[in-house]
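Quick review question:
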């Protein structure tokens, strides 16, 4: 006859096999207070796993949404949105500009818009070019300065400006050209002004033109750039 197996330790001499070990009782300290019992290591590990999962989920959500565009939107008609009122006051009547779809590029990572207009009806006239790039995936900041300040012309010296966007550079030569480039978050904008003159066959093209009409152009460009940036956030 097979008897029932005995339960080892059933009389209190030891733990029952297959059951979790009970922690030993915590003896009170000298002051009668019981020390805080440490939580098992697997509890801390579980907390780290949860925190890691939350961080990874947040990173995935950020990457899925893309960077914060800071209120900037895609331009539907840059010539209409670039009022350029300060330049118009300084250089005369604005010429007509038509919306050209070829002046716009749309991509999931980058939107680009361009506009070219003229001011004035008598010499010198002024050509103005506006370019707006909205970076929707990557940060344009690290490349902004080296791209902007590349030596396009020998006497083209860019200097930093404050008070417009996050970072800005302005350059002007003695031949009637000026350019303002601005970085503001994910947006990069540039405004170029060039003086236009016709030369007769007997005129010396090697001598620099009288560019006194360009005096004060920096202030006009900064004013119009700020107005355009505000418009593109509406």
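Suggested answer, residue by residue:
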């Amino acid at each position: 006859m097979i008897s029932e197996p005995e339960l080892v330790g059933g009389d209190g001499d030891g733990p029952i096999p297959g059951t979790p070990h009970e922690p030993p009782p915590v003896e009170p300290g000298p002051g009668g207070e019981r020390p805080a019992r440490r939580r098992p290591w697997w509890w801390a590990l579980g907390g780290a796993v949860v925190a890691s999962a939350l961080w990874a989920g947040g990173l995935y959500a950020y990457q899925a949404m893309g960077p914060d565009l800071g209120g900037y939107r895609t331009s539907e008609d840059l010539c209409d949105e670039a009022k350029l009122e300060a330049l118009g006051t300084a250089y005369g009547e604005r010429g007509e500009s038509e919306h050209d779809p070829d002046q716009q590029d749309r991509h999931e990572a980058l939107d680009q818009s361009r506009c070219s207009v003229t001011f004035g009806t008598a010499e010198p006239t002024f050509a103005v070019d506006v370019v707006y790039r909205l970076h929707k995936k990557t940060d344009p900041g690290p490349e902004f300065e080296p791209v902007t300040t590349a030596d396009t012309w020998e006497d083209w010296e860019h200097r930093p400006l404050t008070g417009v966007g996050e970072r800005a550079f302005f350059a002007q030569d003695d031949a009637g050209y000026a350019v303002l480039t601005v970085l503001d978050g994910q947006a990069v904008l540039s405004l170029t002004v060039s003086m236009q003159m016709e030369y007769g066959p007997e005129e010396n093209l090697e001598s620099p033109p009288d560019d006194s009409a360009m005096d004060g152009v920096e202030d006009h460009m900064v004013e119009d750039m700020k107005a355009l940036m505000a418009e593109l956030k509406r």
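Why it works: The two ends are 93 Å apart (CA to CA). DSSP finds five helices and seven strands in the chain.
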